[in-house]
Design goal:
9% of the residues lie in helices and 51% in strands. It has 234 residues and is mainly beta. It has three domains: 34 residues; 88 residues, Outer Surface Protein A, domain 3; 82 residues. It is elongated. The relative contact order is 0.05.
Length: 234
């Protein structure tokens, strides 16, 4: 299609859309509708070189809009999924999908991929919770941030997926937990009703040091590996 032909077609479509939606709000769709003029299984818009740069087409799941770059590599796709929700995919010029925005029954999700189509960042929301996850090259979550009806939390994990640091918000305030590689807490700092506390534990998950602050005073206690007290102040 030559340039002047495309301009003519676009002009006609613009006039039709303007007339239907803007000119007279009393005009009913049954009197004037675009489907009276264009009905097709697919529509292709090409550039001056005859290469398709926009495709509108239908399949068994619904409709699809695909946008290509000047080299005819499709870099954006908008379509309906098999379950009837919407999906947007962003593709780099090598043809690798690097970002996905999708809807589901409870909310939506965003996935950011590397060039090998592996998810590196995931963002999701459902009825009661929202999450952000950062994932390494072997598909293990190494950092996450989430919020639900009870509060929020931030976690840092090692390459094996074990939580080694966590910051959690709750109804009393918040707490920070630093853990060992075996997922046992090493240090816990938290807020309680009347003050704050610090717990230090060994690798056997036994608290050996306690530091607490209360409304009128504080306390420090030291325990052995059998949880037996060996000293305290006061």
């Amino acid at each position: 299609m030559k340039a002047f032909e495309r301009i003519f077609l676009y002009s006609i479509l613009a006039v039709l859309v303007f007339y239907v939606f803007l000119v007279d709000n009393k005009v009913e769709s049954k009197e004037f509708s675009l489907d009276q003029f264009i009905t097709a299984r697919s529509i292709s818009i090409v550039n001056d070189e005859g290469r398709a740069v926009v495709m509108l087409w239908a399949n068994e799941d619904g409709g699809i809009i695909s946008i290509a770059n000047k080299d005819s590599t499709f870099i954006i796709s908008m379509n309906a999924s098999k379950d009837g929700n919407g999906v947007i995919s962003v593709i780099n010029k090598e043809g690798n999908r690097v970002a996905i925005v999708a809807a589901n029954e409870e909310g939506g999700r965003i996935a950011i991929n590397n060039k090998d189509d592996n998810i590196m960042v995931g963002i999701s929301a459902d009825k009661d919770r929202g999450d952000v996850s950062i994932i390494n090259e072997v598909n293990t979550s190494i950092a996450s941030m989430g919020v639900d009806k009870d509060g929020g939390e931030v976690r840092v994990l090692n390459k094996a997926g074990t939580s080694v640091t966590a910051t959690v918000d709750n109804e009393k305030g918040g707490k920070i937990v630093i853990g060992y590689e075996n997922n046992k807490p090493a240090v816990g700092i938290g807020a309680v009703k009347d003050g704050g506390k610090i717990l230090i534990g060994n690798k056997a998950d036994v608290s050996v040091v306690y530091i607490g602050a209360y409304e009128d005073d504080g306390r420090i206690a030291v325990y052995n590996k059998h949880s037996e007290g060996i000293g305290s102040l006061p």
